[in-house]
Structures are given as structure tokens and as C-alpha cells.
Amino acid sequence: MHRNLMTVYNDFKTNPDVMFVSHTIDFKYDKPHVLKKYAQKLGVDGPKWQFLYGTKDSVYTLAEKNYLVAVGEDSTAKDGYIHQGYLVLIDKDRRIRGAYDGTKEDQVEQLRKDIPVLLAEYKK
Questions:
Q1: Which of 20, 41, 90, 96 could staple 49 via S-S, CB 3.0–4.6 A?
Q2: 104 vs 2, 46, 111, CA distance in Å?
Q3: What is the pTM of this model?
Q4: pLDDT band at 80 (very low <50, low <70, confident <90, very high)
């Protein structure tokens, strides 16, 4: 998912009106120093893409109530978690404008097309 999002990040990393935020769901392992190393491994530097950490309750509630995506612990899942790998496009007024399966290249490509449309709305 993050590798696919890198294509979008690279397209918009110099645009001051676009921000990227990732929330870890692995609250036991993904401490801030781990997330920083992961960002560096991806080639992300600076504040344009934030990798955020929080308590299980805060992150899961945010995912389910604000982003409307499912997340949870599942001992039968490969990594111990089940979650939707969605990329959510949110406008400046905190409204969801699109949701894209970040594991599918065609949906990531659609996100790349939808961002300029959203940006153009704010320039009117």
C-alpha cells in the first residue's frame, strides 16, 4: 500500500496544498522511532508525509468513525491485524472525497487523477 502511495507522494510532494498522513495500526511495534526508520526506507523526508502513532483505541476509533474503514486485531491474519488497505482522500474541510484500495494500481491511479480535480475546486 505504501509503495503504491509513493507514486502519488512523488507527484504531489512539492504541492503546498497536499499532505499525506499514515496511521499505524500496529501500536505494539510501530513506535515513533520505528516509523521514522520506515519513512526513511521509503525515501520520505520532511513534514509532507506524516507517519502517526497512537493508542489502539484512538487509532481504531479514528479509522472506523472518521475514515469509515475497518480495522482490528486478528490472530489468524498474517500480521495479526485485519484492515482495509484504503487510501482516503480528505478535503480541507475534513470531508471524505474518495476512498481507494491502496493495493490496486488502477485505484491508486484514480486517486492520482482525483487530487488535481479536488485542488481545482479550491482555486475557484
A1: 20
A2: 11, 27, 11
A3: 0.75
A4: very low
